[in-house]
TrEMBL record:
Protein name per UniProt: ATP-dependent 6-phosphofructokinase
Domain Phosphofructokinase: 82-394
Quaternary context: Homodimer.
Source organism superkingdom: Bacteria
A cellular component term, taken from the record's GO annotations: cytoplasm
Catalytic activity as recorded in UniProt: beta-D-fructose 6-phosphate + ATP = beta-D-fructose 1,6-bisphosphate + ADP + H(+)
Pathway involvement of the protein, from the record: Carbohydrate degradation; glycolysis; D-glyceraldehyde 3-phosphate and glycerone phosphate from D-glucose: step 3/4
Residues of the active site: 211
Entry keyword Lipid metabolism: no
InterPro entries, alphabetized: ATP_PFK, PFKA, Phosphofructokinase_dom, PKF_sf, PyroP-dep_PFK_TP0108
Named cofactor requirement(s): Mg(2+)
Job of this protein: Catalyzes the phosphorylation of D-fructose 6-phosphate to fructose 1,6-bisphosphate by ATP, the first committing step of glycolysis.
Amino acid sequence: MTLYLDDLRVRRLGECRYDSPFSEMLSTKQTSPHYVSEGDRVLLEDTVSMLAEHDLPPGRVPSFEAAGPRRKIYFDPDRVTAGIVTCGGLCPGLNNVIRGLVQELTVHYRVKRILGFRNGLKGLTAEHRNDTVELTFDRVRDIHNVGGTILGSSRGGQDADEMVDSLVMRGVDIMFVIGGDGGMRAATFLSDAIKARGLDIAVVGVPKTIDNDLPFTDQSFGFQSAFARATDFISSVSVEAAASPNGVGIVKLMGRHSGFIASYAALAANGADIVLVPEIPFALGGPDGLLAHVEKHVRAKGFVVIVVAEGAGQDLIEKHGLPQHNGRGTDASGNVKLGNIGEFLKEAINAHLTAVGLAPTMRYLDPSYAIRSIAANAYDAVYCLRLAHAAVHAAMAGRTEVAVARWRRRFVHVPLSLMTSRRNQVDPDGDLWMSVLETTCQPAQFGTAAGREAVRPAAFSA
Ligand SMILES: Nc1ncnc2c1ncn2[C@@H]1O[C@H](COP(=O)(O)OP(=O)(O)OP(=O)(O)O)[C@@H](O)[C@H]1O
Ligand SMILES: O=P(O)(O)OC[C@H]1O[C@](O)(CO)[C@@H](O)[C@@H]1O
Ligand SMILES: [Mg+2]
């Protein structure tokens, strides 16, 4: 997808006429290596070759509006009501973002009314719109020390017009939507419905997902805390597998379509022999298939450690899996329910090693919710706070249909629709995956493309 400057422009509700509480602080600031002034922009691309490909003058090169405070703002803080909602799966740092939004809105902009909508976007339906929490700084002072979200979250679609009715009825001028791809999509529909009615309501997204599958953001908040926690489980199965006869340690980690948690956790633990991600299909059987590789490790050093992302090998489960491992249908938000690759591998490897006379000791861990329900670590705490600051500045300056994100180290405004225009995935040709291969020493692929189709593993042949 080729992006042009106009695709990256952010919609503004109107002229900024009020002095910002930050105007004095900003009066002497200009772009430096550590600051982007409000008149400057942040480049979308960062290699000489990519820039050369466009062959455009600097002013036309695709770039994002920089996030941060403005000297003039759009909303009169005295008259603003802000709303906050968290939606989708949990992720470390949700409470930090809520706290940061409330702190910035109340302490600096002196906004007096902030409503927390409960249980995700369901909280904006007619049935639930009056069941809100008044968010004051006192109410949120200590919430960053715990995981989850004090507002609750949910999945499932809602009618955009009904949600707009709720905003109008509750007098909301600025709505902050903290969510993943589904949440960002819903925020886009909400913005469209607001625009269609000609209403003066800003919608600002704060992208979140532990899967790190949202585009135009270096890494989503909470991801680092989640993969750091995941390393503990890799270490545990490594210790167990190494101490057991023909030990096989398997850790299944979240990551529906993107294997970032599996890749980063495996790199951090630096003890995995094999990493399997949804982006890279693999074959079980055959001389260069996964099972042969597992067997080689067990014969050579007595054990093997495998980290697998939940979305990996779904084609294999469908073809060869037992019915109880299959995925079934979709969840309330339309996300595909995945087959259980961890259980599938456990049985396939057990059967294979037993068949070749290496009866294994299987150690399987599926820490799923244990890695996303924790509090944010120090790094994510800072990141969440800074995203919250950026979101409040954007909203007060009348930016709408926008998400705040960190892109190539800078905080920027990304048009909401772009956040769902594609999925961030581990690039099989990228340097992250190369690091995984360098660390695990696993082959670039298990089985040839043809082999992946044809070979049926012994364990599952009828
Ligand atoms: N296609 C859609 N149309 C309308 N609303 C949607 C749609 N997809 C998602 N939503 C809304 O977004 C909310 C969150 O979506 P979803 O459950 O997919 O989680 P998410 O935001 O993608 O987070 P994560 O992927 O991190 O779990 C849903 O509850 C629903 O309100
Ligand atoms: O069980 P839940 O709440 O639907 O969430 C599970 C999913 O949520 C995520 O954490 C984020 O989308 C995925 O990795 C995982 O598949
Ligand atoms: Mg999602």
